[in-house]
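User: I'm curious whether this sequence folds into something compact or stays loose and floppy. Could you predict its structure so I can see for myself?
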Amino acid sequence: MSEIRLALRSLLKSPGFAAVAVLSMALGIGANTAIFTLVNAVILRPLPVSDPEGLSLFTIPNAAPIGTTHGNTRVSFSYPAYRYLVENNAVFESILGRGATVLSLTHAGASERVNADLVSGNFFDVLGVRPVAGRLLTADDDRKPGEHPVAVLSHAYWMSRFGGDPRIVGGTIQLNSRAVQVVGVGPAGFEGAVLGRRFDVFVPLAMTGVYLPLPNRLNEPDRFWLQLIGRRKRGVSDGQAQAAVNVFYARWVGAQAPKFGAVVSQRGRERWLEQRIRLEPGGQGYPEVRRVSQQPLLVLMATVAFVLLIACANVANLQLARALQRGREFAIRVALGAGRGRLLRQLLVESLVVSLAGALLGMFVAMWAVTAVATFAPAGVVVPNLSPSPRIAAFTLALAVVSALLFGLAPAWRAARSDAAPALKAETGGVIGGSGFAGLGGALVAGQIALSLLLLVGAALFLKSLGNVLAIDLGFERANMMLATVNPALNGYKPEQAAAFFENLRTRVAALPGVRSVALARVPLLGNQNWESGIRVEGFHADDAESSSCRLNWVSPGYFAMLGVPFREGRDVSERDLSNSPKVAVVNEAFARLFFKGGSALGRRFGMGGRGAKMDLEIVGVVRDLKYRSPTEESTPVAYFPYQQSSVREMILHVRTTGAPAGVAPLIRQQVRDLDANVPLYDVRSLEAQIADSMSFERMMATLTAVFGGLATLLAGVGLYGVLSLSVARRTREIGIRMALGAERGAVLWMVTRGMLALTLAGVVAGLGASWALTRYVGSLLHGVKPMEPGVVVLAVAGILAAAVVSGLLPARRAAKVDPMRALRYE
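Assistant: Here's the prediction. I'll summarize afterward.
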């Protein structure tokens, strides 16, 4: 305690030093805590379930392109495959299945769209969660298809929609216009088994045919939509479970092989037969967000770690300067009998107090930064819980202790071991030892410059990558367009009724003031959605490198004209393309290039699916390629179908306006209400907002790396200024003697500047080497930019040199203005 009191007293005597040191550490520790909060939420935090380590995710690596995939890994299974695994399982206590959908929930006369999870009856038992009210789903709720109209509400939805009213348990709500009994409420904090998604309602898988009637997913072995999680039996490792479950899965795959053919090539059939289950740790649920966020977050974590190192180097330099000023104090203590160990301990305690104060302030910086970073999340992605936790508090405390050792140990050791005799004679120049720019202070500054250059190179790379993404030709006109999603099936509409609803809505909206044109599409522009299917193309035979599959969309007449997408040949879908008309399709240029090798696609035929698919689709037009899921994707085959020749349940209204799109949103809502007040209109937003969302990752990386790079450069500049000022102060007598002997001010100015340039160039050389080594890691995150692109490197080096010149200008000018007579009396 005495050391702490002395440390506080000493720091209060030097408020300027304390303020700068604490602020530097607050910025460094706060930035690290903010990014670690995201890493913890996305990468480290387990599901709020019982024994998460005992859970395993079922995936298929190197899968044929069928079902939901993450890269080459398929994460979805058919319901028959799930039932086969459950019935033949010997290594899992139980296996759950789940699949997401969207439902319309009506209660007390108000309807809204909710995210629903169709789950097996053992879903909650496998995860080991308990209700806060009522009960959860059981196996009895999932036995007979279509006969279990029950639901469980998530705790968050129960609180927001029903105000936590316990009377809703046992009461009735309507899901897609069907009466459903609410049997319970899930625990607080549990929102489902998919990271980044929040489910409002959980309903039994047995009700799939009711809520998703076309087609009945429970009966189709080739429809992959269920994600599976198993709880291993005690004593069974992942490897043992994987080997055992694949014995049975291989049998099922072999039995189903004759029915499949989404890939036409022989190699595709072989891939189907070769597929095996891989079990992955399931304690964090299905990692939709983690898979795409892990590498960027680790890059940001490394970035803020470098910022903290620069902050520590800054404070270490401040400690060195302060130790020089306190040299006489230390010498007197030693002369009076204080041991050097006691002195070392006292200085380390002071460092720890500074670091802890910085960590406390850094927690507030982190809370602000986390909120700011969360704004980069695209619409529809639920940001995980970012509230402080014991793990985050422990991380921050550990960071403070390590930082105190990093910036405090070397200066304290140097001060504690310095010779007392010169200090007692007031020869302050010898307390720390050395002069000029050599020594620990200079090495620290060179290291700061190297790390700052590394961060500036990274920031410049991501900024240029963002510029390249913003300059991409999306293939369509983007100005003044509003998007809105409508799904009459959520209110019980049959396909023919939904088609009539869509036509009425299109006609009504087209007549609104301020509307130029209207069209419908199933897949929104740049909405990161993907509808894909295997196809069979007349006269095309895939080789091992080619997959006969394409992306799909269903559109209304006028869709391409509204987007300003030109036709290369043929025609658009038209009002004559009805359900009883011959089936037609419009394809893009990539489709024609792949399947017809540049020849004309008009009149050619293809079929959907791979099980001897009928060639019943005639190509009537070819349009220019346009971006489908994201701005950075390569052009891939896309087929567009008249929506009236399908049974699509949900459509996105595309409205081109004469002015700002936001002005027509209330008018569109009113038209939907006039047609049916129980049909919800949702995801109402401008196309510009949709495009901005599709670039959210690039914006986040460019913005954060630029902020951290700028902060690092500022800290490095402050460090360089401090070392130069200290050097000038320590060499005042030498400078005075030189000037008294005839040295010109320009020579003195160059003497100081030369040392600054030497430190800067040493840091630049080291920084270029580190940049070459480390920026290779971020190459996959960049678009159209090489990791060490010359222009980017030159820009970053110029930034560092400019910061060094600005930082060194004032101390150099001060040295050049030294009065020789005063300098000769300087002590």
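Summary: The first strand starts at residue 55 and ends at 59. Residues 65-71, 427-437 have pLDDT under 50 and may be disordered.
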